[in-house]
Amino acid sequence: MPRSTLHMSSGSALLVGAIVSSDLRTAGLWMADRWREWLATCVPVAAFGLALALISGMMLFSVRGGAYIAYPAFQLKTLILAAGLVNVFAFRPPSYIDAQGTKPMKQTRRTVLQSLLAAPPAMIFTGSSAHVWAQLSALPLTPACETGSVSTPQQTQGPFYRPNAPQRNDLTADAGSRRRFSLRGFVFDTGCRPVPEAMVEIWHADERGEYDNDGYRWRAYQLTDDAGRWGFDTILTQHYSFRTAHYHIRVQPRGGEVLTTQLYFPDHPRNHGDRLFDPRLVMALDDDRSTGRFDFVVPSL
Q: What segment(s) does the record annotate as region Disordered (predicted)?
């Protein structure tokens, strides 16, 4: 049998490896999204990337004369390592700029809020929502752009997102006897400027930790007003499985990229057991714990 040779160079092999990985990721986009929370909790991302790298490496072997080609060991290790890095970085969560060492802002979020809170609420915030805005100044500021040019951390979207949610800020029509909870805040850019007409979308589990996957209960979106304010009146969500209690949020400025993240309670007993929990995404609660406050920071356009 003639000695087999490899049909592709190392460079083209790496290119094909990246393409194969990309195709696999695209073909399994829905499944990858459903598994992402589970992977982040139970399996190190590096191990997942290595498994895909091994699959990609095996697919790069070619056949000539009915025989599989033996790839030199040191080249195979290099190929697997490179493919592993591609997969790890393709599936790793986004990285964020550390606030330490950044230049201080000339205009802080506190000074911006002092002027914005004096402005009248937008027409979408009516009825029981109006008095909440008067209480915003009493809530402590959540970490954001006053400490530096840092965007709000991204988090996984999770498997329960549904597009085409209705536009509304009051989700309590079906609340019944459930405990009510309000979420309020602002959307700023990294220059501490309010972002008007940004789409803010929310979805969350009910008091039993269950999502409505058939309809749009506990799902909604709204647009920020001229002062960058957003707010929802809904119910108190609860934990489920390995997840602590949280609200899913998507923020998209007009013409900007989508920020997908989650908001948490400061002292929920399940926080310590949830590996997705991020203390930077903790809401500030009022005295009776019926309102949570968080200000989102998105990249400047």
A: 147-173
pLDDT for the residue numbered 197:
97
3-state secondary structure of 106: coil
> What is the model's pTM?
0.60
- Of the pLDDT bands very low, low, confident and very high (cuts 50, 70, 90), residue 169 is very high
Domains, the chain, in order of start with CATH, read 10-91 (no CATH), 109-298 (2.60.130.10)
d(C-alpha 84, C-alpha 78), whole Å: 10
Question: 141 forms bridges with which residues in the sheet?
Answer: none
Whole-angstrom Cα distance, residue 249 to residue 231?
Answer: 12
Lowest mean pLDDT among 133-137, 232-236, 284-288: 133-137
CA angle 134, 130, 249 (to 5 degrees): 90
Beta bridge pairs of residue 67: 64
d(CA 182, CA 231): 7
Neighbours of 247 (CB within 10 A): 23
In the DSSP assignment, the letter for residue 162 is -
The rounded distance, in Å, linking the Cα atoms of 155 and 274 is: 13
CA 221 remoteness from chain centre: 16
pLDDT confidence tier of residue 150, bands split at 50, 70 and 90: confident
